[in-house]
């Protein structure tokens, strides 16, 4: 059900049993906004290997940005790489983009919550969204910047004000919660985690992360409710687990880059016209009281082609959803107020 990230490629890439020639693809331009950071660099590395990417524009305010672009340009894969440093070069980076992936922002540090990051990161996302509205209004935006629950509403409100908002084209990247859940279940079940299919719904922080363990395939080999609750808690707090393990040295960067590349790949496959491309993403929604919500969506030529909902929840998962909604409503309002105040 859920798509997988592309493997490194030379002349031919293989994914889910299908072969893609690197010489016959549509010309997709992808922008990484925040490309010099801990997520941005490995994300750009993964995207440079994707045969669906023929133009890769790297943007950041960091002085090293042009060097990152030159470094990646030495890789023998088809994507042409350009580097863009500073706000004055953002428009050139974004112009004519098909997909803008945004990991830009300050990272979490020990003791920080995602909400602590809000003020700085909100301004960054607002400005990038404004530039997208002016220079690539038809581009899909995939937002990694935390707190995602608020950043997606911010980008949406900016696009609304510019008169170019399309809810099918603004996605919050919650893929990391999905890959973490699959990794943990694979370990518990003693199976290859790439064979695990598990929807994670809600949002992308704390109690808003709802792993629907009852829908896991294969089923999670946990019968004790206490262990199910412990696994749920681990998935919800996995970001903090990484922050603590890095002891002040950063947050989840490599796994987030992998997850971001996986969603970006899925978006591009949808744009290309591939059928049945499904990932979880945080999108405009009317499924719950929250006006944005993460769950499986089908991706197509216009971004989100169909919202697949989240199916039947068990009693425990319904309680998780009940706990998540007030937090989501607060996060969404915070984002909208930031733009509209």
Automatic annotation (TrEMBL):
Residues 174-339 form the Lactate/malate dehydrogenase C-terminal domain. One of its GO terms (cellular component) is mitochondrion. It holds the Pfam family Ldh_1_N. PROSITE patterns: MDH. The active site is at 204 (proton acceptor). One of its GO terms (biological process) is tricarboxylic acid cycle. The keyword Nucleus does not apply. NAD(+) binds at residues 34-40, 60, 121, 144-146, 256. Belongs to the LDH/MDH superfamily. MDH type 1 family. This is Malate dehydrogenase.
């Amino acid at each position: 059900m859920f798509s997988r990230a592309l493997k490194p490629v030379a002349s031919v890439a293989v994914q889910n049993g299908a072969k893609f020639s690197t010489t016959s693809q549509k010309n997709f331009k992808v922008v990484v906004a925040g490309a010099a950071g801990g997520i941005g660099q490995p994300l750009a590395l993964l995207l440079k290997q994707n045969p669906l990417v023929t133009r890769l524009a790297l943007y950041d305010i960091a002085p090293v940005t042009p060097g990152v672009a030159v470094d990646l340009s030495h890789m023998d894969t088809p994507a042409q790489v350009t580097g863009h440093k500073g706000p004055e070069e953002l428009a050139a980076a974004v112009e004519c983009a098909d997909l803008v992936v945004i990991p830009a922002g300050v990272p979490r540090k020990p003791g920080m919550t995602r909400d602590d990051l809000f003020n700085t990161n909100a301004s960054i996302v607002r400005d990038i969204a404004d530039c997208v509205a002016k220079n690539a209004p038809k581009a899909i935006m995939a937002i990694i910047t935390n707190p995602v629950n608020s950043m997606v509403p911010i980008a949406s409100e900016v696009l609304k004000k510019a008169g170019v908002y399309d809810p099918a084209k603004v996605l919050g990247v919650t893929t990391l919660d999905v890959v973490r859940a699959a990794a943990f279940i694979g370990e518990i079940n003693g199976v290859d985690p790439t064979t695990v299919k598990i929807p994670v719904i809600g949002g992308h922080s704390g109690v808003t992360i709802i792993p629907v363990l009852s829908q896991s395939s294969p089923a999670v080999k946990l019968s004790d409710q206490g262990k199910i609750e412990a696994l749920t808690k681990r998935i919800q707090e996995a970001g903090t687990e990484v922050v603590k393990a890095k002891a002040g040295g950063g947050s989840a960067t490599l796994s987030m880059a992998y997850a971001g590349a996986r969603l970006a790949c899925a978006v591009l496959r949808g744009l290309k016209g591939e059928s049945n491309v499904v990932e979880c993403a945080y999108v405009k929604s009317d499924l719950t009281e929250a006006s944005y919500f993460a769950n499986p969506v089908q991706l197509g030529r216009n971004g989100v082609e169909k919202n697949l909902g989240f199916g039947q929840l068990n009693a425990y998962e319904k309680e998780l959803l009940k706990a998540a909604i007030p937090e989501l409503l607060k996060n969404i309002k915070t984002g909208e107020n930031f733009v509209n105040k």
